[in-house]
Amino acid sequence: MRHNPAHHRRVKRKRVILGAVFLLVPPLAGWLAADQLAHPSRRPLQDYHREFLSDPAAHGVVLKSFNCADGTPCLVCEPAPSGVMGKRGQVIREQLAQKGITLQAPGSVVGNLVLMHGRRGRKEDYLLIAERFCAVGFRCILPDLPAHGDHPGNTACYGVREAHLPAQVLREAAAKFGFNPQPTGIMGLSMGGAVSIRSAVDKDAPWRAAVFVSTFDSLDHVVRYQASRWAGDWLGSVWSRITGWFYQRKTQIDISDANSLALVSGLHCPVLVAHGTSDRVIPMECGRRLYDALPTGIEKRWVEIPGADHDNVLITDFPIYSEMAEWLLRHVSN
Question: Which of these, 91, 313, 86, lies nearest to 212 by C-alpha position?
């Protein structure tokens, strides 16, 4: 075989390029993933948000908005005194009646709920959820979390730095609009669940009951799971470590600090944990580990939502709202 210098140079160049790609792709992917964790793309207002905001009475609620002292934007959603309800409110009241639960007259307020949205969500995403809870007698307080919605903060810390917010927005809303902050409960989805857990373990936490939906056990576990899904176990492990390194540089927080599993043993109120069986973002075993780690001395309940993925966990045919409402009415209402 004749020696072909040009061919060998081409082969060498290709090897160099492939080697460079192999070395550069994991750091670049890790940097991008860390940036999305720390600074997620903000979800803009949707048409259905605008429809609700323009005519809350059609949904059986009264809306009030305010900003907390630190700039956190909030909505307060109350049952309409007229007793008029939207279609979602009618459905949940019918479902609870079928369970044999006696409800106060429409328009009554029996307690408060603070609702914490998930990553890349915003407070307006919870308007349709609040419509249902208002129909059974709850006043709902909906804040934007930092780096989400209209919040002035630009960094998401998955509860590590936001743990004070749920109690703060409850306290400031009660003072501004002149209602009793008790009794009250908290409900959080995904990242909002992690914030809610950290809030609820505080010794002075005001929550009489909590609901955590599709919530992670630890953030680094979820990052590693997602990276491995895309790149395989070995490269996914490398990718996730790089992601954690960049996240720490961006936030000054070790990604391992966002660990709900290490905290839930300190909860002291009744807890319902719900998770979709087909969740591909935060696998159901993450939620199950949280539930299994709850202290034995509290009342607790595990709910599996059949076939639900992460993004549709609250919009399947499974009556998850009546399950949550029953739990909250039992533990939170006057």
Answer: 313
Q: Which two tokens stand for residue 100?
A: 């044999």
Count CA atoms within 13 Å of residue 211 on its CB side. 29
pLDDT tens, position by position, 285-325: 999 999 999 999 999 999 999 999 999 999 999 999 999 99
Average pLDDT of the chain, as a whole number: 91
CA distance 41 to 89: 31
Tell which residue, 307, 217, 313, has the closest CA to residue 265: 217
Beta-bridge mates of residue 300 = 271
Domains observed in the chain: 1-38+219-257 (no CATH), 44-218+258-332 (3.40.50.1820)
Please give the single-letter amino acid code of residue 7. H
Longest CA–CA span in the chain (Å) reads: 93
- Sequence length of the chain is 334
User: Are residues 218 and 258 in contact, defined by beta-carbon separation less than 8 angstroms?
Assistant: yes
Distance CA(206)–CA(181), nearest Å, equals: 9
Residue 30 — pLDDT band, cuts 50, 70, 90?
confident
The neighbour count for residue 4, using CB atoms within 10 Å, is: 10
Distances in Å between the alpha carbon of 206 and those of 122, 154, 183, 209?
23, 27, 8, 9
| Cβ density class 92-114: b for 16+ within 10 Å, e for less | bbebbeeeeeebeebbebbbbbb
